Amino acid sequence: MQNWVVFCIPSSAAMSQPRPQYQHYIPRFALRRWVVASAPAKVPWPFLDEFLNIYDLKANALLLGTETVARSFGMLDMYKDASRPDDFNHVEHALAKLEHQASEIFAKIEKTSPTGSVMLTRPEVNALRKFMFVMGIRNSYQYAAWKDGTLDPATMWVLRQFATKHGLPSTGHAFIFSLKHLIDTDPWEVAQNEKIFWATRQDYKFQMLNFAISIYRAPPRSEFILTENGFGIWSGISQLNAITKFRVPLVNSFTPFMVTHLYPLSPKVAIILRYNVLTMHELSTANPKDRVTWYFQSFPFEPAKVTYDPPPTMSQSDLPTPNSLEEQHKTMEMWLGGVPVASRSKDKLTFKCFTLSTSQSQMVNSLLLENCLERVIFTDILSLYKSVRLCYDKDKILMHKVDYTKLKRRLVDAFRASQLTVGREDGHKITMVGRHLHRQAAARRRKKKKRKSKSSNSATTSTAPAT
Q1: Do β-strands 348-355 and 375-378 pair in parallel, antiparallel, or remain unpaired?
Q2: Which of 261, 363, 381, 439 is most buried, by CB atoms within 10 Å?
Q3: What's the superkingdom here (predicted)?
């Protein structure tokens, strides 16, 4: 008897269509820094399943170690380019290269001692800045706004003109097109590359030239959280202050002027980009009462120390006095031989790392909580509870757009359910939680007793007979 083997050969059309791919807007290497557990994958796979602690605002669900890195903070075919049948995922591949560079820089920063410094080459600083900027525009909200056309009418009109100019069928394709050219373009040439959307070019140039990098560490027993839109969250001042104090032109009187951008790198390290004019303003304003107030004002800061290679070609005393930021950048290029500062590949920059106080680290978390719309990632239950209860709830600057009452209840339930936790450090945390909850309960009892005392005194006073 003869055996026959039947082969099913798919059509060329079916072969040309790749399977849907889950693509992250927060890359795996960044999410892994918040991993709380890992286990062998359920399917043959060269990696372990890695799990996160997540609070889902919409579902009011506290997911402790159940959500995987592989299927969190992404969507299907986010970077798929249907116009390139030869390589549908060429944008994903370009992002992978940038992410690889960023992961090595992240590791370099994390190895630095809490009070030490980290030295980065100019190309490393360029790659870090570009990665952080890209993270701010690749989140799910930005992508949906481009794809669905929900940006403001003026921006949408310019965006449609951009798509038409480059023969792109939709504004969603314009997102992919602009992002790919942003990644591939040298930092000093981004502003001139018309294949990058105009607003993106201007924002990138402004951030690269006018914001300084500052590196911060969380203190012991504290951590930074992360949210779905946490990379690039900004804080600002009023336009009136920006005009009168910083001499910037009016853009929109109802829109705050951005002075910082926040980027949590891990539970222990965060980068804040700080507007350079803040430093100039503080140095030139002797009276603290005349200074502009802003959210991270209490955070220490020190500009990077730069070793120029080759050294400057002329003395600073021979340079003309700049009258604007634009002139200042041109003067800087003149001082360094007439080339863009970002193109000097042999320069080395040393950044000091500052360890924040517990209250300062909680301020970072409060800003993230204020702007979160979907999910919060964390590793330590107690640290998150304290950030919400002791900082966010009492913050007098934020608008308190989000009510975290349900999250606090979930965290308290998680505290009580983890009484069987083994291990010295975890046991210490549970003891701290118990003490914290006990103090809260005692404070409530004291308040209740005080209210009763007041009410009884008022009752006695009202019923006392006249003498």
Answers
A1: unpaired
A2: 363
A3: Eukaryota
